[in-house]
UniProtKB/TrEMBL annotation:
InterPro entries: ABC_Gly_betaine_transp_sub-bd. Residues 1-20 form the signal peptide. GO terms for molecular function: transmembrane transporter activity. It comes from the Bacteria. GO terms for cellular component: ATP-binding cassette (ABC) transporter complex. Residues 33-313 form the ABC-type glycine betaine transport system substrate-binding domain. PROSITE patterns: PROKAR_LIPOPROTEIN. Keywords: Signal. This is Glycine betaine transporter periplasmic subunit. Pfam families: OpuAC.
């Protein structure tokens, strides 16, 4: 009986050992089966995800996936390794946790996707200058700065609170919303203006579009590159020049320069070294990104469709990021 039990357990150990050897062999050969991207909710990150996913799937043979969530949740996912790639880390919007993640070695910055972006509180240009072609007189001709907004509650009237104005903040869960909150206090905007936090980027766009088409006053947070800033004539309201000490204390300056970087989890260089080498070369610009976003808007296209269009329009750019062999594989798959 003892001999039978011994043989039984020995057989189990052999099977488990074989399974373990098989798994480790697969891991050493490929390292990772599926590369997961972060989607924090805005269109440009979706487009860049799709461009990178196409190249990785068709050129390198990996499967890809996307995890959606707030900036905080997806960035934590990157640190934890649940997410492998983040195509748009707006570094100064999450300066503290980004710096911490870099210091602890949880993530690696591979490249700067683009650094020619702007963000802040915008108004339609007709609010300041009027629009003779549309028969719109200037609504606030002396409006120049964010602090000036408190003088014009009637121009940006809150439909739910007559007599007070309304400023559209960033969506709930976005790191930048806290900066807008701080600006409200620093500039005394709460004296006459309400701080309205929408549920999504789409809600901001819908609100702006309605106001713009009607020629009404509107003010809110937005950024470039986006389809919105490409489509509409908007003016970024002025703030004092960026000063790090003032920004850290009150946020009463313009937004800091913002490198939008491609970052990966610390294990990616070992898990998919060839993909990491590709991502080290990934570099675009606000103008190039806005082209894809404008295509989305004008053609009611998905991020995937816009990415495919962009890659065909700018084959010279993305093929410079990879070897000729990989580029040919991707081009063949896209035909």
């Amino acid at each position: 009986m003892k001999k039978i039990l011994y043989l039984f357990f020995a057989a189990i150990l052999i099977v488990l050992s074989a399974c373990g050897s098989s798994d480790s062999g697969s891991a050493s050969e490929q390292g990772i089966d599926t590369i997961t991207f972060a989607d924090a909710g805005w269109d440009s990150i979706k487009v860049h995800n799709s461009i990178a996913q196409t190249i990785i799937e068709e050129g390198y043979g990996y499967q890809t996936d996307v995890t959606s969530g707030s900036t905080a949740a997806t960035f934590q996912g990157l640190r934890d390794g649940d997410i492998n790639v983040y195509m748009e880390v707006w570094t100064d919007n999450i300066k503290e946790i980004y710096g911490e993640a870099m210091d602890t070695g949880d993530i690696e910055k591979l490249s700067t996707n683009f650094d020619d972006n702007t963000q802040g509180l915008y108004v339609p240009t007709y609010v300041i200058e009027g629009d003779p072609e549309r028969g719109i007189e200037p609504l606030a001709p002396d409006l120049k700065t964010v602090e000036d907004l408190k003088k014009y509650p009637e121009v940006f009237e809150d439909p739910e609170d007559p007599g007070r104005g309304r400023i559209i903040n960033a969506p709930s869960g976005w790191a930048v919303a806290e900066a807008i909150d701080a600006k409200f206090e620093a500039y005394g905007l709460e004296e006459t203006m309400n701080n309205f936090m929408p549920g999504s980027d789409a809600a901001i766009v819908a609100d702006l579009t309605d106001a713009y088409e009607a020629g009404r006053g509107w003010v809110g947070y937005y950024w470039s590159p986006t389809a919105v800033t490409a489509k509409y004539d908007l003016t970024l309201l002025e703030e004092p020049a960026y000063d790090e000490e003032t920004w850290n204390e009150t946020k009463a300056t313009e937004f800091p320069p913002n490198d939008v970087v491609v970052a990966v989890h610390k294990d990616m260089p070992e898990q998919a070294s060839e993909v990491v080498e590709f991502l080290k070369n990934y570099e675009t610009s606000s103008e190039l990104t806005e082209e894809a976003l404008s295509y989305m808007d004008e053609n009611d296209a998905s991020a995937e469709e816009a990415a495919n269009w962009w890659m065909k329009e700018h084959e010279d750019i993305w093929t410079s990021w990879v070897s000729e062999d990989i580029a040919n594989k991707v081009k063949d798959a896209m035909q």
